[in-house]
Amino acid sequence: MSTQTLSPATRSSTEWTRVCALGDLEVERGRAALVDGDQVALFLLPDGSLHALDNHDPYSGANVISRGIVGTRGSRATVASPMYKQVFDLRSGTCVDPRGKEHRRLHVWPIEDRGGEVYLLRGGAR
Amino acid sequence: MSARIVVIGAGMVAHRFVDSLVTRAEEKLEVTVLGDESCHPYDRVGLTRFFDGATAEDLTLPATIFEDPRITLHSGDAATAIDREARTVTTAAGTVHPYDHLVLATGSYAARPPVQGAELDGCFVYRTLGDVEGLRAHVARRSAELSRPARGVVIGGGLLGLEAAGALQGMDAEATVVQSGDRLMSAQLDLPAGGVLQRLIEQRGIAVRTRSRTSAVLAGEDGEVRAVAFADGSEVEADVVVLTVGVRPRDELARAAGLDCHERGGVTIDAGCVTSDPAVLAIGEVASFDGQCVGLVAPGYAMAEVACDRILGGEATFGGYDLSAKLKLSGVEVASFGDAFATTPGALDVVYTDPVGGVHKKLVLSDDAKTLLGGMLVGDASAYGALRPLVGSALGADPAAYLLPADAAAPTAELPDEAVVCSCSSVTAGTIRDAVRVDGCTDPAEVTACTKAGATCGSCLVMVKSLVGTELTRMGRTVSTALCEHFELSRRQLFDAVRVSELTTFSAVIERFGRGRGCDICKPVLASILAVLTPSHVLDGENATLQDTNDHVMANMQKDGTYSVVPRMPGGEVTPEGLIVVGEVARDFGLYTKITGGQRVDMFGARLEELPLIWQRLVDAGFESGHAYGKSLRTVKSCVGSAWCRYGVLDSTGMAVRLELRYRGLRAPHKFKLGVSGCARECAEARGKDAGIIATAQGWNLYVGGNGGATPRHAELLAEGLDDDTLIRTLDRYFMYYIRTADKLQRTAPWLEALDGGIDGLREVVMEDSLGICADLDAAMDRHVEHYEDEWAATLADPAKLARFSSFVNAPTTPDPSLAYVPERGQVRPARPDERRSGEVLIAGTTLEVRR
Q1: What is residue A80's DSSP assignment?
Q2: B480 Rama class: left (phi>0) / alpha (psi -120 to 50) / beta
Q3: pLDDT class for B409, splitting at 50, 70, 90?
Q4: How many angstroms from the chain centroid is the CA of residue B595?
């Protein structure tokens, strides 16, 4: 099926999926979600913004990003992997402190709050 | 119009070139990278890691640069022709790529010696991922067919040959290295150094034959490799042969295109890396500079930077090959640098040889014995980082001082600005100093990010750190005691600030004393401070967001993201009934079980969603959290003492239980441990603990500030002949004073070393109350004891806290599907990457399948 024939609106309504209620998330404490076999780390920040990234930590190979400490580096909201403490930007998924390793990044998923329900774009990792 | 750049070759040097180009170029570019291997560029230098379980993916160089829209990577499509008139490259698939600049980075191929049989199936070269995969499959097949370890012969005793021999050993194959010359690593080492290396290699079970010219590889009647024959008529049995006799530049495309090539191979380049055609550059092993091609990555990286600069209109020049190298071969350190063979007229050697210890070191000095020219280090290359940057400059100390055994501190001379500190990225000492002085970097990590020094192999990081520290001090900047970017205060200042202000939440503290929203450094520190000052559950309210995952789920994270569980066994005491419950829980949840060094039982492989189920059973049986996860009291180790031991003077186990129950759950700047011995024989090894208590006929002797681990230190005597109550009061004050005043993650040993007056100063504070704070310290400890509750029992009683133990918010009891285990010695362990790939994984998830 070609997605080019679909209007953006049709496309988004078919591919967005509900993952949980907003109330299931804690501010500044991640939760993992399982979407089509992909493990996604969900974060809710004090400003109400939502972020979804790979739960897979590229430095350790374990699915643990959702269990890291959330904070800031400068003006950027970040999460530190609980395994080897590399720090990732929650908005872009880029690694802002690779702890002497090479830079690797996390994929970022489009995520939305729709009236208290959290929706994720399936297969939308970028 | 944007410049079109075509790169032929997708190895490490090509990767570095493209990385530099996209980082530096501001103008429009179209970069096409043509690689004949059907994979992303990978770390060929690290190829041997493949045999330690690294996957092809682990070896892949960062692929993110290929996500840059200016770059197109065509893997698995080899370039077949260059048309210099039309300025195009044609590939095997027939695609034609036009270029404005062409960069040749085709590298080398591994040579096969012209001996009979070198083309047999069991002969391998050691160059590509395909080579090592083929080698491993062959060794596995032959070992299985022969029902014994395969016998491997490596022809070529250079550094690649020694790596290959180590790889064969890693596959449980026997290994023999054959060298036609008189010594191993003849390009880097002289005869004495090669001799020491040979003995070290032989001690590791690898046979070495020098002065052995191979005449043929012989096959048996079944067509399999059977033996290697030598010119003197002798033979060595072999089931597999690895050929590491050198590499040859892949210059065939360049020759066909009429570019000037050296008679011994390689595309001739000038100092700008430009070939005889100004539109074509060559870099890495294919490039011949000054009549020489070199198979090391560092000069290739240097050429990549030069070529990049030239294409961007710069004037950079390649300054010649730096053949310095430091390696570890089968655990043996070898380094060679500068004029290692003393070819400079009048050069002097200073040699230190210890044949028993297996160490050989040689420095080459100028005729006045003042300037360092080069050197060789075998067996202990720890001085390499300090010495190599000094090549060409004054040694500044007695040369012999650099050659003494490693535990003698090496002198440190001031490096000249032009000395190259990081040879991987060609960063000089001056560049590092500028990063501090001009660019404002304030720690080694920032300098690495800014200059790339130490980012590749990391062997120069110690040197970088020392340069940064010196430079900061020179600028009059004290090394900052700030906790992190969010707090200017040190941990001690922050503790006092929180205590005096009586703030009780992280948000209030950071708003008043810090900035931003904290990080993985300051949040756990604040959690610990708040836990001591305002006793409350670690998962209460906002506290939960401050905790590291270990404290958050009250278990210890392991490498695969599962946790280990440790119930408290005070003083190492456990009833038979308790032991049975622990065993049943471990069996029912499929947990790997091991006895810890702290006299209790650790159970590994518990998944997040299993932790409450496991703890419900443990709590029901009377166990409580062992705090193995916390920066808090771990264990009080003890010998059995006077209750059973015929030499015991006092009841050490009873005292250990009493102390463990008193200090359990007490949060501190770092973990702390105690030991109690029932007599002077010290079976509890108490003096290696933060507090060690040893029984004497006069009472308890108290030692403090001991440490095991990486920097062992014996505890020092604080007080002698104490009765039970005085011992406990003194310990209370010692710990509380440490908790109030130590730096972040500072254990008692370095804290005591840094404390004003050392052990005497501590004695004045906690025993003579010189600061008048003892009543305060006593009250703080009394409050801790009074408010202690078992964190796990409290968590099980609170549904809100239990919600945090779901594996997935939308599938709360589904196990992490990526977990995989293999059996080992009757239990399970996480599968290694190679086992996952080969499908040897027998158990996915630890439960059910291993229940019997």
Answers
A1: E
A2: beta
A3: very low
A4: 26
**Fold identical between B3-110+249-311 and B633-787?**
no
Fold adopted by B3-110+249-311:
FAD/NAD(P)-binding domain (3.50.50)
CATH superfamily to which B123-245 belongs = FAD/NAD(P)-binding domain (3.50.50.60)
Q: Which of the four pLDDT bands, split at 50, 70 and 90, describes residue B417? A: confident
Considering only the beta carbons, identify the residue of A37, A62, A104 that sits closest to B561.
A62
How would you label B126-159 residue by residue, b for 16+ Cβ within 10 Å and e otherwise?
bbbbebbeebbebbeebbeeeeebbbbbbbbbbb
Contact B96, B80 (CB under 8 A): no
Q: In terms of pLDDT, which residue wins out, B50 or B671? A: B671
Is A69 in contact with A79 (CB distance < 8 Å)? yes
B-interface mutation test, from A24, A59, A67, most B Cβ less than 10 A away: A67
Name, in order, each residue with C-beta under 8 angstroms of B410's C-beta and a sequence gap of 6 or more. B382, B383, B386, B401, B402
More confident residue, B440 or B724: B724
Residue B821: pLDDT over 80:
yes
Which pairing describes strands B372-378 and B3-8: parallel, antiparallel, or unpaired?
unpaired
The mean pLDDT of B505-516, rounded to a whole number, is 90
CATH superfamily assigned to domain B633-787: Sulfite Reductase Hemoprotein, domain 1 (3.30.413.10)
Contact of B43 with chain A, judged by CB distance below 8 Å, is answered with: no
Residue type (1 letter), B14 = A
Residues of B in contact with A56 (CB under 8 A): 818
- The per-residue pLDDT of chain A, averaged, comes to 86
3-state helix, strand, coil in chain A (%, to 5): 15, 45, 45
Beta pairing class for B592-595 and B601-606? antiparallel
- Residue B491, token pair as written in the block: 């941990």
Distance from CA of B34 to the nearest CA of A (A): 23
The interface predicted TM-score (ipTM) is: 0.89
State the distance between the two ends of chain A, measured CA to CA, in whole angstroms: 21
Measured between CA atoms, how close is B562 to chain A, in angstroms?
A: 9
Cβ of A100 and B455 within 8 Å? yes
CB contact (8 A) between residue A80 and residue B520? yes
Q: Which residues of A touch B810 (CB under 8 A)?
A: 19-20, 33-35
If DSSP codes are grouped into helix, strand and coil, which group holds residue B786? helix
Taking phi first (over 0 means left), then psi (-120 to 50 degrees means alpha), and beta for anything else, what does residue B640 get? alpha
pLDDT value of position B834: 86
For residues B167 and B173, what is the distance between their CA atoms, to the nearest angstrom?
A: 9
For residues B662-678, give the mean pLDDT: 95
pLDDT of residue B406: 47
Cα B547 to Cα B557: distance, rounded to the nearest angstrom: 13
Closest-CA distance, B807 to chain A, in angstroms, reads 7
Spell out the SS3 assignment of B320-378: CCCCCEEEEECCEEEEEEECCCCCCCCCEEEEEEECCCCEEEEEEECCCCCEEEEEEEE
Is-contact B123 B133, C-beta < 8 A?
Answer: no
Q: Do B808 and A34 touch (CB under 8 A)?
A: yes
Cβ <8 Å between A85 and B445: no
CB contact under 8 A, A100 and B458: yes
**Domains identified in chain A and CATH numbers:** 3-121 (2.102.10.10)
Residues of chain A neighbouring B461 (CB-CB closer than 8 A) = 100
Chain A: residue whose CA lies nearest to B64: A104
Q: What pLDDT is recorded for position B730?
A: 96
Of B519, B523, B809, the CB nearest to A24: B809
List Cα–Cα distances, B796 to B527, B560, B615, B790, in angstroms: 21, 25, 8, 10
In order, the DSSP letters of B541-566 are: TTHHHHS-HHHHHTSEE-TTS-EEE-
The 10s digit of each residue's pLDDT in B745-770 is 889 998 998 888 889 999 999 999 98
